[in-house]
Each structure stands twice: as structure tokens, then as C-alpha cells.
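pasting for ref
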Amino acid sequence: MSNLHTPKRNLFLAALPETDYERLKCCLELVSLPQGWTVYENGGELDLVYFPTTSVISLFAASGNGDSTAIAVIGNEGVFGISMLMGRKNTPSLAMVQTAGYSYLLKAAHLRQEFELGSPLRCLLQSYTQGLMTKIAHTAIGTLKPAFKTSLPLVCSTSSSA
């Protein structure tokens, strides 16, 4: 396997302690992802998790009128399919390959098992999820209608004024 196609090209996998990485490594499968390929349809069953190395996966949310809006991109820094760790059996968004390349697949059951061990992978996944949710929130705020943006409170206070 060339250096180009090693799981550690994915920065999430590279950040794992060696023992955790070695435990997952044997379960990872290298796949080629063509541009435009649908990774998951909205509502598709989450049975695989993707760790891109040279590919980029875009996440899209459907609006009420049927249009789709890109809400996040996942490249070699991350992982796609983590919503299954929050109890979801189906993906809440459409995921499509934006940039062709390679990714490593892992069965969702393997990731769930590792997560439940409470290993350092769990902490990394929680931190990554928080970062991804922040990116999605920033995207959502950027797409709000100007009239709605100006009506949002700028400061919240939990203390009562006298």
C-alpha cells in the first residue's frame, strides 16, 4: 500500500492513539469515490462510516420547497456517518461526493462498538461532532433571510434585572 493510500491520510484516524488505530485498521476498507456519487440519500440507512483521505463529501439539507442547501463538507480532517452514534439509524441529510478520491469505510457497528468502549476515539468523536455542528450552525446562520437575522437577540441574559 503506497503512502497515498494509508488510513493515516485521514487526520481523524491519524489522531488516534496507536493501540486504538491498530484495533480499527483491520476493519477499514479503501474505496474509490467518484465525483457526484450519492453516499447516502436523505433518510438512508447508516450502515457505513466514511473517513475521506483524498475525497470530499458534501452534506445537503432539504428545504421545505424541495431545494437542497450545502450545509457542510467533510474532507481528510473528518468522518461522515457519525449521526448513528446519536441513536439515528438513518441519515438526516443527503451526502454526495464533491471531489473524487479515496476514503476508508468502516462498518457502523465497529465504530459503535469502539465508541462504547469509552476509548480515546469516543472523546475525539465527541469533539469532532461539536466542531461539525458549529460549522453547520454557521452555514445555517449565513443562509437566514436578512429580516430574520436582525430579529435574533444579540445578548442573552439568565439573570433578572431589578
